[in-house]
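Minutes, methods subgroup
Present: GH (chair), OT, SY

1. OT presented the first of two proteins processed in the latest run. Sequence and structure tokens recorded below as shown on screen.
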Amino acid sequence: MTISLRPYCLKRCKAPMVAALLALGLSACAPAMAPQGINDPFEKQNRATHALNLKLDTYILRPVANNATRILPDEVFIGASNVADNLGLPGVVANDLLQAKIGPAVHNTLRFAVNSTLGLGGLFDPASKMGATAKHTDFGETLSVWGVGEGAYVELPAYGPSTQRDTVGTVVDLVFDPLRLFIPKDKRWVGTVAQIAARIGDRGRYSETVDSILYDSADGYAQARLLYLQNRRHTLGQTTAESDFEDPYAQ
């Protein structure tokens, strides 16, 4: 996930400082209350977006993924996924700090350092073998920790299921990626290519499960919405028991 950074950092470092102060000010706020049920006031628009996404999957993503994963070895997509995950770690660390989670921040910093060096830029994942397994977070979770509610369910073009809170989180994570401070503009395409390849690999790997949700369900939109909300709430620790959620992608 050269130009001198000194004048650039003098301008940009104000944003992280303000964010850190904001985090300290909000650290006393209670996390967002666990949402109940499904809040989907934009269902008509969401279903239209879902229909668009279904066409994109039918005519582009699914055939590309199925053919690519049939032709190319799994190692290609595993490597792409490793690189994409590694490039995203500085942003994960930033969110750990904004959530006042020092332990996970140190853990993910170590993981980034190991995989960026011993893992050849993140192509391999020796950190996991050393015990520094992936511990993901994002700005959507940061907002939840700060007490921001889930908001309404939304489906985004090309991106897929989300909520109002997670949509804001996704935009912030994309715009304020800390790694952009250190990667030259002409090298940033590597992360984009890695993310696309990783998504293609995931689509091919979970083809049967995704197809059953999108194409075999009586209402693919409702099924995708339910699974997303269950998974997200489970990830944020907002479910009451392990039995509240069953991961459809579990092997």
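2. SY then presented the second protein from the same run.
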Amino acid sequence: MLGLPLSTLLGQALGWRWSFAVFGVACLAGAVLVRRMLPAVNHLPDVATTETGSVAMPQREPGRSAIGVAVAVSATAVVMLGQYAFYTYITPYLVERVELPEVWLSPALLSYGLMGALAVAVVSVWLGRKPFAGAVGCMLVMAVVCVVLSATSTLSVAFAAVLLWGLAMGALPPLLQTRMLQASPTHMLQSSTAWYTTGFNLGIGGGALLGALVYEGVGIQALPAVLLGALVIGLVLVLADGARLARARRASRDA
């Protein structure tokens, strides 16, 4: 929320090397705080008891399976791939495509981040109760934003679209994570969360690389189309998984 606008402001004032230096110092400080303040984690918790000569078996959980986890993680990775292919290069896009004055870059990016913070509140109060509908809705909003940004060079329209993008993108990751938790069998929760985090971070790193290749090979105007394509794939995956989950629950009720 604050990192990109602050680093942009610092880069404009003192040069990009200082942005990296401050980031490095912040990482070191964070590592020290984690080491000193967070408790150790028991990586081998007791998951069953053998006091009576028996082993606890997982109960049947309709709709929860490794397949659902794989779909949720794949959807997250694909959407993040498209998101960061575009968002990594949002500064040159705003400057070159919609001619945003550079002095307004930091406030514009801060506004995007603040909309993301607002989205967290929206998720906790409303959308979190219906993560499937919320995730689909956020992806549809982002798809509309991609179309608008591809079609316009009007500064005010583009800025409004970016704010809407920040709102939808702020809500989407926790909604996708909730869908992943709903799909995961209880005994797989820790490993499922690890896979989700891995998919998310692969999307971030891979998206930056993909965006660089598209930017260099096709041009910056193609970046919204990359995100749009990723959203279409993510929507197909989420909708297919929703249908699978509904069938599994119906079959469980009928059994």
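Chair's summary of item 2: The CA atoms of residues 29 and 35 lie 10 Å apart.
Next meeting: continue with the remaining queue.
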